[in-house]
Structures are given as structure tokens and as C-alpha cells.
């Protein structure tokens, strides 16, 4: 495994020796990964390599068979469901489909966590929502229900809901999947704007061009382990045949 030579930020999330088996299939044999403060790390891998399983494990939606997930000095795998609930307020999750509450408007979806988990006044919440909607190119959509939104708008609203409470880490699960090129570019631009504000996250995707625009480092899963982790530029120009075949194949297939 290789690494870039930049001065590292402090590690905010660390996966140590994670193992996961489904039936006879060993999805994760031993996953080791350290996420630095202020970086967005891309996570690549073929279908069935367990990319989504890995980030779902971080917030307790899937449970590894062995290993540690260290966040704020605690092993998340040792926490109770009640303790994990508090952690989930600090680790945002952007689902593939947006995962909005169907019966709530866009504004109500964004306000939900702010009302439940902050002491902001109604006026402060309103201002925060207006700023977020402007950031994601959805100004004026406050009163729309999810079924009145396009697929691209649903994903952007889901992105906004996951990030509006300003979590320490954001996990992106194939956020551009199923989008047409125009909406893919729009969502990518939204994520880049959030990155400029200093977000830290893991970006799971098959969309190599989007990841190369957004990510500082790239990790590639293969046969149950991290095959390589390096800077985006180093991955682009890697001499490793597997890395090059993966990257080029993803561009042209």
C-alpha cells in the first residue's frame, strides 16, 4: 500500500482490521483506512467489493465481524444503539436516493435534525435553510414535497439534509448514481462547494471523473483489502496495472 507525501491532517476516523463475511463470501478480509481532517477520500472498487457495506458499517447499519472503527477516541463497534444515535449526529450519510421523509416538505426535511439536535431558534433555522438551499441551487423549493422534485433535486436535498447540521464526517454512497450528465455535473458542483467550506468525507462511487474533481485521495478496494491508497494525481498516473486498468475501464465503459 502506498501513500502520498503531503503533510497529513489529524486522523478523524480510522478503520482497523475490518472483516465482514456474507455466507461463504468474504467481502472484507482486513480493511485498514485512516481519514484525515479536511480531506475527501474517494473509495473505488468493482461491484460486490463491499464499498457501500464499508461506509454503512461506520454508522452501524451493517456490522463487521471483526475489527475496530475509531471515531473521537472510541471504538464505534463497542457502543450501544443509544450511544450510536448520538454519533450519527456527527457523521452524516448521503444515501443514493436522497432518503427524504416523504410526508415532509423540503424545508421540513432540512429543519428536522436542526430542531431535534440543536438549540437554534426558529428564525435561525429558517436562515440556515435558506442559505443551504441557495448553496445547492434549490432556492424557492421550501414548500415542495419529495414527490414533486426531480431525481436530481431529491439527491441535492438529501445532500443538504445530511450536511446542514455540520457533521464532522460525511459519507457519500454513490451520490451521482442514476443521474443524467447535467444533474451529475450539478450535484458534483454542489459537493465541491461544500468541500470549499472544509468538509471531511468518504466518497463511494463508480463515477471516476466526479471523484477526480472532488477527492484529495483515492482508496481502491480489491479482494477484500485496500489495494492502494494515494493522492488523486498519483492514482491517475499510477504504474500499477490493476489501478490503470480500473481507472481507464471506468472512464470508457
Amino acid at each position: 500500500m502506498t501513500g502520498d507525501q503531503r503533510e497529513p491532517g489529524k486522523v478523524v476516523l480510522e478503520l482497523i482490521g475490518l472483516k465482514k463475511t456474507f455466507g461463504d463470501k468474504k467481502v472484507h478480509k482486513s480493511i485498514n483506512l485512516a481519514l484525515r481532517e479536511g480531506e475527501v477520500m474517494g473509495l473505488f472498487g468493482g461491484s460486490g467489493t463491499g464499498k457501500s457495506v464499508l461506509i454503512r458499517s461506520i454508522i452501524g447499519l451493517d456490522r463487521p465481524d471483526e475489527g475496530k472503527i475509531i471515531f473521537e477516541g472510541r471504538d464505534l463497534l463497542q457502543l450501544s444503539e443509544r450511544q450510536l444515535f448520538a454519533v450519527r449526529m456527527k457523521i452524516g450519510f448521503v444515501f443514493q436516493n436522497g432518503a427524504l421523509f416523504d410526508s415532509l416538505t423540503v424545508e421540513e426535511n432540512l429543519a428536522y435534525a436542526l430542531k431535534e439536535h440543536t438549540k437554534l431558534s426558529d428564525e435561525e433555522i429558517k436562515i440556515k435553510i435558506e442559505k443551504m438551499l441557495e448553496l445547492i441551487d434549490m432556492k424557492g423549493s421550501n414548500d415542495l414535497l419529495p414527490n414533486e422534485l426531480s431525481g436530481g433535486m431529491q439527491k441535492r436535498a438529501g445532500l443538504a439534509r445530511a450536511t446542514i447540521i455540520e457533521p464532522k464526517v460525511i459519507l457519500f454512497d454513490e451520490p451521482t448514481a442514476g443521474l443524467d450528465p447535467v444533474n451529475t455535473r450539478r450535484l458534483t458542483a454542489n459537493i465541491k462547494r461544500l468541500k470549499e467550506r472544509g468538509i471531511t468525507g468518504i466518497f463511494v462511487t463508480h463515477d471516476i471523473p466526479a471523484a477526480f474533481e472532488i477527492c484529495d485521495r483515492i482508496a481502491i478496494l480489491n479482494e477484500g483489502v485496500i489495494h492502494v491508497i494515494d493522492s488523486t494525481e498519483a492514482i491517475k498516473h499510477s504504474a500499477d496495472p490493476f489501478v490503470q486498468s480500473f481507472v481507464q475501464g471506468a472512464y470508457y465503459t
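The CA atoms of residues 43 and 204 lie 5 Å apart. Strands lie at 11-22, 25-36, 40-44, 66-71, 74-75, 91-94, 169-173, 201-204, 217-222, 225-231.
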